[in-house]
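Appendix B. Raw example, untouched.
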Amino acid sequence: MRTIYIVLTKSGTYLSKFIRAVTRANYTHASMSFEEKLQPLYSFSRFQTFPPLPEGLHNEELDVGVYKKYSHIPCAVYKIEVDEETYQKAKGEVEKMLENADYYRFNIIGLWLCGCRIPFTRKRYYFCSQFVSHILETANAIELPHRPSLMRPSDYTKIESLECVFEGRLDELKANLNTYNKILA
């Protein structure tokens, strides 16, 4: 069996604050990793701390950018155990998308409509939780409670097949990863 990790955070950015105000959710951003050290970590998000745009598909690093600036933010790590075929299918889909990252854009319209619970899909446009959901759905790794375009980061906290292996602050998570080279439950 192999493991896919989902990392949920709530930063202090204006977009995060806006999403929190609209949804009242504990988490406003979702990323995913195929490694126990959570590097690389994949998502659709901003490329730099400032300005907030452009955004798109890239590798996030826990010690750079927004995560460095907001190291005391709440975060949670969930995992799902999958067979080798499902793991490779999910990882392969991410790698294929990364090879063509210039063709992918941030789905700002879809993000807005997700907040209104209106499904909206555009080819090669994703927001963070839509991307994670797309990968998991494409690989048949998990049964989602909503379409990918309606998945919010906090929706992952309610999926019974996901196991929460860490909940706390980002700086605590980074300390655990640096000390033990793995996530502590």
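End of appendix B.
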